[in-house]
Amino acid sequence: MLKRFTHFIGSRTGMAALALVAFTFSCQENAETPQLGLEDQVLKYQNGDIIPGKFIVVMKPEGLNFRRTDKYEDVQANMRMAATNLFAKYRISEQNVGAVYGTVLDGFAASLNADQYELVKNDPAVLYIEPDRVVSIAQGKPGGGGGSTVQETPWGITRVGGSVNYTGTNVAWVIDTGIDLTHPDLNVSTANGFTAFTSGKDANLNDGNGHGSHVAGTIAARNNTIGVIGVAANAPVVPIKVLDSRGSGSNSGVIAGVDWVGSKGKTGDVANMSLGGGVSSALDAAVLNASNKGIKFVIAAGNSAANANNYSPARVNGANIWTISASDINDNFASFSNFGNPPIDYCAPGVSIKSTWKGGAYNTISGTSMAAPHAAGVLLLGAARTNGFVKNDKDSSPDPIISR
After folding, report:
1. Inhibitor I9 domain: from which residue to which, for each copy (predicted)?
2. Rounded to whole angstroms, what are the CA distances from 221 to 30, 37, 77, 362?
């Protein structure tokens, strides 16, 4: 098991090589396309590892002289100009500027050598720089293929109070590997979808891994005659693709997705983050700032059987942030689940969870990645309640089991 690996599914094995790429925005014809300069490059690092030469630069708000607007594209253009101007002071090419953020974090991703790093770090307009790191999930076993002729209610849905046909106007943002866009059991909304990849097979919103589709199904699989049913059945799920088909990405890419959700989301929406890795102040700040806009962030505690305070974004606390540990069908604390109060708020079913999968399929897998979407579905329906406490918690404060 990778000790720095926060939210993986299935077996507790190590991750192999991953592709880290640049960022683009789907369904936005006039959106800017920031470049990170890592396209088609395979970097053989594991989750939580520092990506050499790659950084996240966070600016001081008072050091930015552009006018704020509500339009995402304007903020992006202004932040890119600010980053380019900063680099011009030190004769650093504007091509070294990667993804830019301006809604939930004032900053940008960058490629820097050691000398450039020292120059930028000491600039009076810069608050701090941190190294970019790998974020990964472990691959689950392949889906079973095809659909199901009889609808069933997975045990986890029953444990959190059963399913309700969703009639609200909010959406669930699935910050993950994408979603199977044509799955007959999912109500996928692509109008505000986002993908963090500009080339190759992941330069779209579709899920090439299965993990994001599984998360989406637990939140909101349709109440029809096939497959499974979600907590908030039929609710719209929006793909925010920040991990590739191998379940790999970077903190800078995840922040780009959170920045997008912070711009496009509205009060009462839910954002599920069944991902994570090593500590990142920038990622933590982005999630906290987005949640302050009224978007409910639900975060998997992690699967390292360790203290969740040592992982981002699991460790973030806020009024609209919930970190979720995992339990089995007998309400026992999952052996792999991270622990700690704070940041953990609730426990939810996370062992042997059946849900939707890529290719119109279904799959049964385990992880705090599976627990978080149970809570996301509950919170999309409204305020959460509890129903008992998890048994055999690894800390001195048993987590309450979330229920609608």
Report:
1. 54-137
2. 32, 37, 37, 11
